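REQUEST ID: PR-0412
SUBMITTED BY: lab tech R.K.
PRIORITY: routine
TASK: structure prediction, single protein chain
INPUT:
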Amino acid sequence: MTTQSRGARITVREVWLVLANVLLAGGLVVATWKLGPMIAWIVLGLFLALAFEPVVGWLTRHRWKRGWAVFAVFFSALLLFGGLIALLVPMLIAQGKDLAAGLPEWIGRVRAFGPVHWADEQFHLTEKLREGAGDQAGNVAQPALAFAGGVVHAVAGAITIVVLAIFFLMFGEVVFDNTLEWLDPSRRAHAKALAVRMSNVVSGYVAGTAVVASIGGVVMGSTMAILGVPYFLPLGLLMIVLGVVPVIGTSIAAVVIVGVTFASAGSTPALICAGVYLAYQQVENHVLQPAVQTRTLKMNPLLIVLALIVGTGLAGVLGALLALPVAGALQVLLEDVLERRRLRSAS
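STATUS: complete
OUTPUT:
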């Protein structure tokens, strides 16, 4: 009895250890809450680095020094991005202005459409929108300042993310190797192999998703350009941007594209755009996305939906963007743990 009571006795050292762990966990939670934007920039920088890692790795395997490979990749991306801006931004601005100027007329056309007209008569939607706009008419300055501040914040964030990605590519492997020194020598090789597998899953998914989203934007933008829709460029760009949002992104973009096409070019071009989107969606769902997920995630569809729900609930749109690659990396880790347990039980 005495031995058991002594064995069950909690020492002062254990109490302080538990208290220190609780305080540390609380500090991490508070730091994560306070440094949310900074952590988001770091995570996005890491994912951008992982997206470029296959190209950098290919160059280094062909006798390029890593520094020059990183410089070549980012310089090429900068030239491409700058060329697209110089070529497309003037057209994008012009089409955006025309899009905003024609908005009242298009609202009238959409309102004249049978089901919309019935809903407006039943629920007085137009009157409510006008009242809301009138109530906000005197509060234009504050949203404008907030928008300007948001633009500055976004530019600063973009620059920070790119710089972080460059540093991750240049020095991330060295930092990781130094971190492995804290592990037992017998575990270092396995830990590094596991990290490489997780990195390959994330980088493959990020790069594949960007390619698929770009293909969708090009298909829909080209379709609208052929049909004579005057705002094909911003709408195609919208398709690319929303295309990186899993599951619902392309659907939201398609609704906007078909609606604007109907209002600006008529019902026939809108129906053609809808048909092209539905046909492309079949190709994306049965050819493009399986090609990406077969090489990367290999996740159960139910787990994909659950990961998206949890990610969106935790961090909104950013959580939705990062949910699947993070879940894919965690799946690799859990599969490795399960495999090691099987090996131990078999032996």
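NOTES: The two ends are 38 Å apart (CA to CA).
REVIEWED BY: pending
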